[in-house]
Design a protein that fits this description.
seven-stranded parallel sheet; alpha/beta; binds guanosine-5'-triphosphate; binds magnesium ion; three-stranded antiparallel sheet; Rossmann fold; 16 helices
Length: 394
């Protein structure tokens, strides 16, 4: 085993020295900052190499164990020697891999060089730049904004990590811009482009108490009648709420619609197939037995769409608990209300994961006022990061 220290102005330069001296198989043991005789910042990398391992020069002439892994991509495993290599890859028994004294193809050589260069750029960014880079303040501020907007640490780390990799691979790239665009893309990935409801569809709203289920049902009804000229009926299976029937009838009277109260739902509504039927439900409770009864009723109604409605004001940990309750009803979509009262939208990312579906609608006005809205990933990223429109483009 040979251990040696290499000092240079940049990580990339130090890695080049290591590569030239020890070859590709050298292993980096430690990296630290150093100061040159002139007082400038340098980087010192301590690397080691197994004396018996081939150097870069010999690696380029022969295919060693490490590069055998790349072989299946370029050549079919037809010969007994190839079969042994394949077995070694599958079982991990690398010692049994025969050394093949064949020249490396120029394509593989080129690919290895490209990968090494990319790795060097990434290391340079990670190991040298962060402390001196003027991006750091902006990065810290973006991280704080994301954290305050209820994004999970796991999400924030992954977003920043991907942006670092993306920008490390490109010269003159803008890390903050990459994070902003990444956020827009990630919001978009949990949002459903608007859907067309048709005759016979049954849209059921479930969710925590007071999350805005009835209001969203009213807004959707108004939208379908006014904009889509659809035939709509309203129904409710809320037996719990005092005044629930009156609320349903108020919406129905206001919009001139037929309504089915809780007691009529399982009877007449089951046979009903004309128009689009919107069904309200009671708030999910902590009692598992009550929830099971509710979900049985929901099953009988056989909804085509089950929308989990939540308020942007709900504390994330509570929201995730209630989403786990709601998951038993197998929601097809979810919707966020109260967007006028909160700008903390990080919960939607985790919610999509728990519910295994996407966000379909949003609301930013109390019941009876305003239209139902489709989510806008750009606007949500903009609000989250408090930036102008043009800074949040993908
Ligand atoms: N500011 C604001 N208020 C809303 C929004 N959506 C609903 N609300 C209000 O929130 C309150 C609760 O809304 P509901 O639609 O009754 O909620 P719910 O989920 O049906 O409530 P329960 O039936 O009691 O479980 C009402 O006062 C609504 O006007 C919204 O997007 N923004
Ligand atoms: Mg309600």
């Amino acid at each position: 085993m040979k251990v040696k220290s290499f000092t240079a102005d940049t990580v990339a330069e130090a890695l080049r020295l290591i590569k030239a001296d020890m070859g590709r198989n050298a292993i980096v043991l430690k990296t630290r900052k150093a100061v040159s005789a002139k007082g400038t910042t340098q980087v010192e990398i301590i690397a080691c190499i197994n004396d018996e391992q081939p150097t870069t020069a010999s690696v380029k002439k022969t295919v060693a164990t490490e590069t055998v892994k790349a072989a299946p991509k370029v050549s079919p495993m037809a010969t007994p020697k190839a079969a042994a290599i394949k077995k070694a890859i599958v079982t991990g028994a690398h010692d049994s891999v025969p050394k093949i004294e064949e020249p490396l193809s120029p394509i593989i050589n080129q690919k290895l060089d490209n990968r090494l260069e990319r790795l060097e750029r990434i290391l340079t960014r990670y190991l040298v730049n962060p402390v001196q880079n003027e991006d750091v303040d902006e990065l810290m501020s973006l991280r704080k904004q994301l954290s305050e907007s209820d994004f999970t640490n796991e999400f924030i780390e992954s977003l920043i990590h991907d942006s670092l990799l993306e920008t490390a691979a490109e010269a003159d790239s803008d890390l903050a811009q990459s994070i902003r665009s990444g956020l827009v893309r990630r919001f978009a990935s949990v949002m459903q482009p608007s859907i067309e409801l048709k005759e016979g569809d049954r849209v059921l709203f479930i969710g925590p108490s007071g999350s805005g289920k009835s209001s969203m049902m009213g807004k959707l009804a108004a939208h379908l009648i006014g904009q889509k000229k659809s035939k709509v009926k309203l129904a409710s299976i809320d037996d719990f709420k005092i005044g629930g029937t009156e609320e349903l009838n108020s919406y129905a009277d206001l919009l001139g619609l037929q309504s089915f109260s809780s007691f009529e739902v399982t009877g007449s509504l089951k046979a009903e197939s004309s128009g689009i039927i919107l069904i309200d439900s009671p708030g999910l409770t902590a009692d598992e037995g009550d929830r099971d009864k509710l979900f049985c009723r929901i099953n009988e109604l056989n909804p085509t769409h089950c929308v989990f409605v939540f308020s942007a004001l709900t504390r994330p940990s509570d929201l995730y608990t209630m989403a786990k309750w709601g998951r038993a009803a197998t929601p097809t979509h979810f919707a966020m209300t109260m967007m006028d009262l909160s700008t903390k939208y990080g919960g939607v990312i985790k919610l999509a994961e728990i519910l295994n579906c996407k966000m379909l609608w949003t609301s930013d006005a109390p019941g009876g006022i305003g239209d139902i809205q489709v989510p806008d990933p750009n606007a949500m990223a903009r609000t989250t990061l408090e930036v102008e429109a043009e800074l949040c483009k993908v």
